[in-house]
Protein 1
Amino acid sequence: MKKITEIMKKYQIIAVIVAAIFVVGAISQTNLALQTNNPTNISKDVQGVIVSSDGMPSTEQSAVLMKVETEKITATRGSTIKVPVTFTYDAVSEERTPVTILFPGKTARAILVPPSVSEKYTQEQRIALLNSKTLPPDVIDLYSLTNFVPSAVTLLPSQTRTVDMYIRIPDSWPDEMLNQAVIFNVNHDVVPLITERADGPVSVEVVIVP
Amino acid sequence: MISTSKLSLVLAGSLIAVVLLPSLTDVADAVQPYVAGYPVSSVYYKVDKIWMFTHYKWTDQFQLNCLIQDELSAAGGTGIDRTGWIYQAKSFMYGSASPVCASSSLQGKVMADPEVWKGGTLKWWVTPTNVGSHTSIDYIKQRADWQNAKSQVQFAFEVRYTSGSTTIYGFTYNKTDYNDPSSYFMVGSTTYNGYNVRFFQFGVESYGQDAYPAGWKIRQYDAGFYDSVSGTNKYLSNMSAKAVQGQYAYITWQTGASVPDKVGGQQFKYTDKTSSTGIVDWFYNAFNTNGVPNDATLW
């Protein structure tokens, strides 16, 4: 009888351990679900997929995460707006190489063509503006209106730093573009280009008023 | 007691493995639902420029789970052969339905998101660029163009807003930074080891394995390319076009590989389409379990 009681006690201990493990498992799953619902965590993973027979994509998911506090701003002609942008290097390992974020980035350009001007150009001519060093006066180079302080930051794994993006609205801002939202994206490059995906995007909508 | 501790450790290890394995498997499989169209034509080896027009204005952002991607893809070539590289003039739209994949201010917005791949490896990308609300955009011309003595590919997104203004977003990929031997895009179809390979595809892709977002409707139209051999623009409306599902969406191959590379890699269930010459509307249809039939005629 004593033997049976001892065996039962042993099984009770095992049952408690198993139950505890299930609880831990459930909590882990809850955490996974929460991570899956976290916009930052999902958006850094999202991308198109090419399936290759001779190799699999990297399973690592390091990313540079970006955030702006204010995403909609009203500004007047001739004013300059300051937009703090925070960058966090979410590295899969503390041993990862530091990354440097450069402002402005070299690979991107954005050109705004107001409605009355749009019709002056053919579609090919409008796209060709991307390669023009000198733009016509009635066309706006959006990225030339932004300035970043500092112009570069280096991030260690898990480190967060803030960069101020200044957006200058010229006095000559066209009447026909007043009271419309114009999107300013944070134009940057990550060096060295980490093999994982950079998170994003970060943009600010600015409505320009007289 | 020692044996009980050991047993609990074994049990703990097994259970933790059970909890974690599914997410690791998801990552390793790395396939996503995809369906596309392609021109039925012989191979064009020297294509300098590719484009298509598109818009998302009929998509219901509040039904759309996470996001839906809108892609123009072409294989890279030397002028006489494929190289195994792939270029995607791609955009996507964030939705508001669960799982939510963006902050509330980005839901309903369209992002420009060009990519360059070699086989299953993403080689070049940019941080997705917000180009505006899907309802404020009349159309987007998504274009890729070899430039500067074929040392660069410029991805251009000409976004025409309903207000009448236009913003042109440009992104430049330098092939020398990646030892990319390509100098052209390729268009047309061939076979490799018995697989049908389509070098030029226009289609839609989900955001994750077995993920079938709802509420989306995307128009793709007036696609074309510049053939530098004849020195002329070629329009897909002058060719016939067919559909291909993701599990068959082979686009190029690596030298010596037995199986070619494909876009997406998984059947895009619950998809439907309406089409006329040069125009296709892809959309979600909850009742169309198997999606657009593979090999369906578009026009």
Protein 2
Amino acid sequence: MSLHVVFQLGGTDYALPADDVLHLDAWTGATPVPGAAQGVVGLVTTRQRVVPVLDARVRLGLPPAAPTDQSRVIVVSQGGRAMGLLVDRAREVLRLAADAAQPPPGVVAQDTAGVVRAIAHVGQRMILILDLRQLVGPEKLHA
Amino acid sequence: MSISREEFFSGFVAETDELLRGAEVQLLELERAARERRPAAKQARELFRLLHTLKGLAAMVEAEPVVQLVHEMESVLRQADRSGAALPASAVPVLLDGLRAADERVRAIAQRREPAPAPRELLDALAALALDRPAAAVAVELPLPGELEAKLGPAERQELAHELAQGRRVVAVEFVPGPDKVAKGLTITEARSRLARLGTVVKVFPRTVTGPAGAAVVFTLLVTTGADDAAVAEAAWTTPDQVRSSAPPAPAAAGGDKGPEEPELPGRGVVRVEVRRLDDALERLSALIVTRFRLHRVAAEMRGRGLDVRDLAAVLVDADRQLRDLRAALMRTRMITVAQLLERVPLILRGLAHKTGKHVRLQVEAGRAELDKGVGDAVFPAIVHLLRNALDHGLEAPAERERLGKPREGQVRIACVEHSDAQLELVIQDDGRGVDAEAVAARAGRPVPRSAAELLELLALPGLSTAEAATETSGRGMGMDIVRRTVHRLGGELALETRRGAGTTFRLRVPLSVSIFDVFAFRCAEQTYVAPVAAIEEVVEVPAEVTRSTARGAMIQRRGRVTTIFDLAGVLGAGEASRRPRALVVRRDGDAVALAVDRVLGQHEVVVRPLDHPLVTVPGVVATTDLGDGRPTLVLDLATLAGRASAAPSRASDAS
């Protein structure tokens, strides 16, 4: 049983281990950085820090969508650095039982290049648990 | 008690580093004195003191190889002292080797590695210098348990005997580190320096004791002092009954006509502060400056609503001035002298001269100029690089110089000039053969440069090397491009003058400090950017008609001269190229380049945060700042962007 932050992208539920998450921010726009890595929407100031924000949609190969007032920035810590992930919605923190999680079917694992670490079933819902390092890790930065 | 040990280690590394540098400086002074046959007792004593302190520190971390090395070096100096402080010049290289070996081992300790044993040959070489060996063990009554006393070396015993003979007491006091003490800054380093004010800390014995809370490190400090138990106890934050002494305090009269000795207070009125703490204070100041912007914004809004804000405006003016003063005061705490920055240069040059077999006379004119520690640390590697180049490629071998009618000894001069615009110019000059522009051009496969600026451009091509073979010191390639990039990153400029047969001069112009900048804010392609005012030569209006277009971009007339103009948005890749009414003129190593923008918003004083996340590492985008709206604003390095535009005409969109 460990805590996960659950978020939505295009109607699908995803989750990240709460240990990786520093805090959540409402989306209020970002300062674009011309020439930045793929999927970087820009820089935001959060809690006295300036962090780059990645569009999680781009990273997961989903079609881009204009942010709404539901959009959130999940500020995560990766490799000792803080950065943000822009998602459609993020409202829940769930304790996901280890036995509810199972490795993803081969085709999913292949499609998402290891980004999906496991799939958890909570009642009728299916939640894709992501591997933050795979999602934003250095080897992905200039993909 | 791992906390106290960590804390202690970081202090150890910082302090030994300072001691080793100080020792190098004194040693080179001694060498010069020996060459010029003048006495240098003061330097010898100072060197001895530095080494002695170093030995004490090394003993604290049980760095036996360092203790051994430094101990042997001390013996050499003790002998020199007895012979009237005339250290033979032949001893200097061996002592330098000793310092270097000690330095390597300290670095290993800093990285939590086991230091290598002291090299036998070096110890032997040092011992061979110290002919006048001290007599065997001296009997001294010590207030120490036998197992600790056994750790004392013969020289330490002798020193203790000497101190006792002088009427001082030898006391042992225990320092028990703990989180409560660390919180108050009471570390072993601090205890040692407090005790050092009362006398001499001869040795520090660390011991591991096991208590209810687990293993802890406890230190026993052996001190010779004229002070009483209460004073010693106070210095070590313990009680007088914890102080053990070897002899009753000698009455003041026993000291003869010397009277009570003033406790020595080294570095009184000086506080050593970690740069991290200064950075923290600056960070807090930056928040205050952002708040000031917000205040101005709110005042402007109130004025816009027709409210009377004259009183508020007057207060704001005061607040601005006070903030500026505070900023200046804080920046001053980060300043180091150029002389301090260049302290290591003689030693580095000596090593280079040795490796290349060239003879060098160094002239340093540091004056009283100061610069920010951060700038100094950033620019120093560039200086070392230019010195290497001067030795490797600039100066001729002694025989060749003689044939050319030059003095056998080559001249290397480092000077600095402070400019009124908060910039410092460092001049690195040699009287060698100069740069062979044709050879450089041939090697680069480019046309022969027509000016010094063009020559510098060629030299700064990545991977270019003019030496026939890679040398041990300069290696091949990788050189001037890095020097220039370093200078540019600091917002500075690099220039070159060279004359065949007469020598080469490099001028590095760097800002005195970097954390807070005066910037111009401007709009371009619907985004606000800022750039350091220092980098902008002028702001011009772009005429409706550009003069003419060439493959390199469009041109405008400016002060009767033709200047290339690029659309900044096009260069940045930040939007559609369009005609923009204003342009910022920047200079890139001599050439003026205009970058077109939509609107100039005005000048601000801002705190800059470096932008170093790999996701947003973009050439020309160097930092962020906050103009008061709580959002990051990008700080641009216009010189780099101008260079990018000039190099890639396809991206540089037409500004017309």
